[in-house]
Amino acid sequence: MNEKQENVPAVGSVLVLGGGIAGMQSALDLANAGYLVHLVTESSSIGGRMAQLDKTFPTNECAMCLLGPRMTDTLTHPNIRLHTCASLEKVEGEKGNFTVQIREKPRYVNIEECTACGDCEQACPVSVPNEYNQNMGSRKAIHKMFPQAVPNKYLITKRGTPPCRSACPAGTNAQGYVALISQGKFAEALEVIHRRMPFAGICGRICHHPCETECNRGQFDDPIAIATLKRAAYDYGWEAEAAREKEQRPELPARQEKVAIIGAGPAGLTAAQDLALAGFQVTVYDALSQPGGMLRGGIPRYRLPLEVVDRETGRILALGIKFVPNTVIGKDITLAELQKQYNAVIIATGLQQSRMLKLEGADLKGILPGVAFLRETALGGRPEVGARVVVIGGGNVAIDVARTARRLGAKEVHLACLESRIEMPAHPWEIEEALEEGIIIHPSWGPKRFLGEGGRVTGIELMQCTRVFDAERRFNPQYNPEVTQTLAADTIILAIGQAADLSFLSEDGNIATSRGLIAADPLTLATSVPGIFACGDIVRGPASVVEAVASGHEAAESVKRYLQGEDLAAGRSLEKEPKLDPPPNVIPFPGRRKIQAMAPVAERIQDFREVYQGFTPEEAIEEAKRCLNCGICSECLQCEAVCKKKAVEHWQQEKVVELKVGSLVLAPGYELFDATLAGEYGYGYYANVVTSLEFERLLSATGPTESHVVRPSDHRPPKKVAFIQCVGSRDCEGEGSPYCSAICCMYSTKEAIIAREHDANIEPTIFYLDIRAYGKNFDRYVEAAKAAGVRYVRAMISRVEEDPQTKNLIIQYYADGKIIREEFDMVVLAVGVRPPAGAEKLAAAAGIELNPYGFAKTLPFQPVATTRPGVYVAGVFQGPRDIPETVVNASAAASLAGAAIASGRNTLVTPKEYPPERDVSQEEPRVGVFICHCGINIAGVVDVKAVVEAAAKLPGVVHAEDNLYTCSQDTLKKIKDAIQEYNLNRVVVASCTIRTHQPLFREALREAGLNQFYFEMANIRDQCSWVHRNEPASATAKAIDLVRMAVAKVKRHEALHLQPVPVVQKALIIGGGIAGLTAALNIAEQGFDAIIVEREAELGGQVRHLRTTLEGEDLQALLKDLIARVRANPRIQVYTSARLEDFGGHQGHFTTTISLGEPGKEHLRRTCKLEHGVVIVATGSQELKTGAYLYGQDERVVTNTQLEQALADGHWDAEKNKQVVFIQCVGSRDGDHPYCSRTCCAQTIKNALAIKTRNPEALVYVLYRDIRTYAFMEDYYRQAREQGVLFIHYEPERPPEVRRRDIGLLEVLVKDSDSGKDLVLWPDQLVLATGAVAPDGVEKLATMLKLPLNEDKFYVETHAKLAPIDFPSAGIFLCGAGHAPKFASEAIAQAEGAVARACTILSRENLMVGGVVAVVDENKCAACLTCVRVCPYSVPRINERNVAEINAVQCMGCGTCAGECPAKAIQLQFYKDDQLLAKVAGLFGEV
């Protein structure tokens, strides 16, 4: 790359793929750091998998409550462009300048117009399984993914053209009208039919229904009775539909072009209708006196009543079509004359003649053509047929002739045909009905000669037909003339085929013909003469009504194009779509096809009454409900009809969008293991075996049972619920994955706890191999679960059986030395994590590699960097992980993605604009109160409706309402709308905590034009429903009190404003370990200065004592490289042997004083003052100092770290150490340190494998409680077992005992919990897996920085799930083992994540501060210095006027000074005395 290219700024935008918590975190970090973000998700809503969770561990907070504000922030951020229903197709270019293509699927709803009113959803007749609820319950074809979906807009699901529709020659939307009939909407169904089939009543009676042949329901039992349902739509809907058409008849465009159509059959009338609707002047000519063609003059009345023909042909002519009856072309008017009078001509004359036989006796009287016979009868005549009739032919016309003859009085009707019974072309049901009516069929007989006397036919001689078709299926009959039979007959009717009358073409030989038909282009139906088109049977030979209709549509389309000068063939094809399979996850309810009633045989052969009686309305509805809705959306267009905003756009098409970006973050999420592949558990067969996510949905208020935990089999609350771990994980033999999915143990524990909270009668049992509670506070959570009644059983479950009577489930397992069979009401399978669907396609598009398990391959010490520069990965696509780790590496990916394009920062961003702020200071308070259900978090205890009623009666309250989730996007919109509608100037939200939600609601006020501080929040969740779960009445009363207090306070609120302050664009990093070094380098790469302050004399932290990772990567080489790069970077300043002495300031501008020591002169320290905009705390951890198990008393007892050093440095003696015993959890998971140190198991396995490498014969034992090799580390655990490392489980109540025998032997006693036996080991070396603890002096540092510590002296983040890098003190961020014990790669990721969070501040020139700050009333101040002494941030000072002064920029709003001021000279804005006193008075009813 030349210098000129290097100076070109990078593209200042990033593509983030994935709308889950990882994608949103990356997008927000990048957008807040000065980049334009394109957030691309295949889903219709952001939220990802977390949106399906009920609660999160270990805090048991509502997942949607946590997620809602994050989703709204993402949607409303001015620099995030959201692309839903989109996928990544191609990535070209290089880091800093990529060109990407994304494919956006249509939503079919204009999200700019949609108001999410829900009218469309109510109107939609199609219900399908609800994917969001794991296919439990249903949703509509037009839907929101879930109630709180973001964007809060509808979309339509379309799978493609259903087979019924694609099989219909006319393209009639069968699924559409069937769906409407299932709702009893017959008129609406008829409207759908009429879009493509103008003859609904006709076709519903006589169609051969190819749609039913293709119907997918037939794969399960019987096809849907589609044709009969079409008839039902007509029979029960035509009056209402006719009235609607009359009332809503559209204004037709008036065009000058004239079109003549020859023939008023179904093809001609269809073409006439289409052209009339397009505004053309249409004239139809026909030889008959009335329109209908064969419908009127060919179909027997017992099949098609005349009134139906009249009604449906009349409907078409009513469009303004001129009908010219009794006109024969070529006789009454010539084709040439029509060409002169009209701009285009369509020939649709059909096949009006019968084919006759040239046999001996063919001229005898009584031999009739079938078509003419049917025409005469249909038009009201009664041809004489005599007592005995023979019909020749095997098709539908022959059957019609035979049955008609029977009704005309023939006592005996024979039908002879060439074909065998199986080969007969007539429809099978027609043949069966003919047999029922006494027709005698003679298959495989052909006519030899006619017999007669006196010039009249008396019979026919038939000869045996041995074959109708040759080997190539061509018509080529073969006979055996020696085998004959004779049938006596008074009348013989020939129905062996139809022919066209082409005599009218003789005057103009230019129109080409072929095989007795008009030759026309098969696609456009254009003839050889321009402007003349042909359609129907005259082109394609004898066919059905529906095929004639299809042909009429095509001819009309060609005429329109011809007259408008357009290409006739463009965009048209004869190819059919591939058949659409049944929709996935649909299990049709049992129900065989309804059979329509028929007139009794004895009655129906007496006259021409209609044979088929059709369905009753009830039968039609029941039959329609059998439809599988293969296309999902039926395109009935009911949604379009009811949408007042006209937001539904069924015409939307898929599109490919090209974007320019500088880097990419891939966060596509994950899939869950398909539990049907683990057949031993009975999932998919036993109704009461569910997956963990299905159980999660049962727990959720938005789930299919609205948080009522019930058994699927009988909807009865379960008592005993079993949770089986590792389904699809840690599976080396079956269909699962060999890795650990990392989250299952904890989410099962959470679900067990929450289940008991929902129903105290539930008794959960968790069957597990290892409880992998490796995260922060996870072990405490498990212990809390045990205390709450969750039973843990360490056992591997190999099979689940069902009791067929009770549907209970029997689990057999081994425990306490015996086999136990235990019965449960439900079984929950903890299914594992799989790579996202389409991972391989995504990898190919992005140009990255995948690891052996299908997740993104990342570099060893660049945990979020893929194999392609400029492309980064976040979330579970990197590998299985929990939400906090997902958030961490999402921020890390944002950090690297931003650093890669730092030169493009702030080049493409736009600021957010707000409406002008209303001045309401002179208005009387008008308060709006919004009460949240919070799913069932609140509403499960508190009577929310009662709280709303009480709030509505409070003075000053003009509006009160309740909502399922007040933090959801739709409710935020309702709040903003209510502010306008009710002229609100104060808002109270009674829901959860200001800690996570106050910024969201304040932002809503700003967007509505109100000052954000006219808002107050009442916490009726944490302070009410959660702590009074068993006292609903008292909880409700308290909630009313809390709301009353909030209303009293908010009425006294005042407008407060923020002010800009400059940002010092430097970062202070406290700690020079691997996390601190990584953070400093990344800050520098972002284009900002970094300062490292390290208390030790050298950099490196705890990693200095380690040698390799479990995977074999060289930690010392990494550390050496990091230090060298830090030392060489001009943007990084390093202070070692440094100590923090003072700290003050605020985010954007901190001031820190440090002292520096010199080697050998520690007592002489010089001070240095540093100014910086942010702080990153990376103080690390240290190894526990222990005296357990003879450590420090016997040189054979070492720590894991000491062993690692000896192994790496070559000092370990393989000959001397032939037996090595490891003891896990030394100083972890005990009374003093009740947490897991996370890294010990991996370090033990790493060292054990190293020992086995050096001495394969060595005996290596690991004494453990749980092996916590989560995610891909499970591979190494398996390798250790395969190489002979023996793992012995012990219970914490019986830890190993170590003693030194008199003869010098080290002796280890341990009880193997699996066998129940006491084991004695005599190791040559005993290795202790000692835990990690917080570093010395951390309390002093935390106090100085005002940072919270937990009981283990690790830092407490803002939020355990969604803010694991942030501190409550703005501008200070956290990374590394000071947060909690972690691996080097995890510390690196968290360091990079901390930089991303820091850049949201450093990238700004100014920050807005103030608002909730302390102010001094100088008239009351006595300069007593109380405020100066008590302020933890050293903000107050005595000014030149000898009164206290508080800098609003520096004030942190803690209120300490206001509380301590003896003269009450200081007030904390937003918490003034009068406001708080009003709140207290409100508690006692004084509002």
From TrEMBL:
Residue intervals of the 4Fe-4S ferredoxin-type domain: 105-135, 1412-1441, 1442-1471
Family, similarity comment: Belongs to the HdrA family.
Organism for this UniProt entry: Moorella mulderi DSM 14980
Family matches, as InterPro entries: 4Fe4S_Fe-S-bd (IPR017896), 4Fe4S_Fe_S_CS (IPR017900), DPD_II (IPR028261), FAD-dep_OxRdtase_2_FAD-bd (IPR003953), FAD/NAD-bd_sf (IPR036188), FAD/NAD-binding_dom (IPR023753), HdrA-like (IPR039650), Helical_ferredxn (IPR009051)
PROSITE patterns tied to this protein: 4FE4S_FER_1, 4FE4S_FER_2
Enzyme kind, highest EC tier: oxidoreductase
SUPFAM superfamilies, A to Z: 4Fe-4S ferredoxins, alpha-helical ferredoxin, FAD/NAD(P)-binding domain, Nucleotide-binding domain
EC number: 1.-.-.-
Superkingdom of origin organism: Bacteria
Gene name in the database record: sfrB_2
Pfam families (alphabetical): FAD_binding_2, Fer4_20, Fer4_7, Pyr_redox_2
Protein name from the UniProt record: NADPH-Fe(3+) oxidoreductase subunit beta
GO molecular function terms listed in the Swiss-Prot or TrEMBL record: 4 iron, 4 sulfur cluster binding; metal ion binding; oxidoreductase activity
Keyword terms: 4Fe-4S, FAD, Flavoprotein, Iron, Iron-sulfur, Metal-binding, Oxidoreductase
Cofactor requirements of the protein: FAD
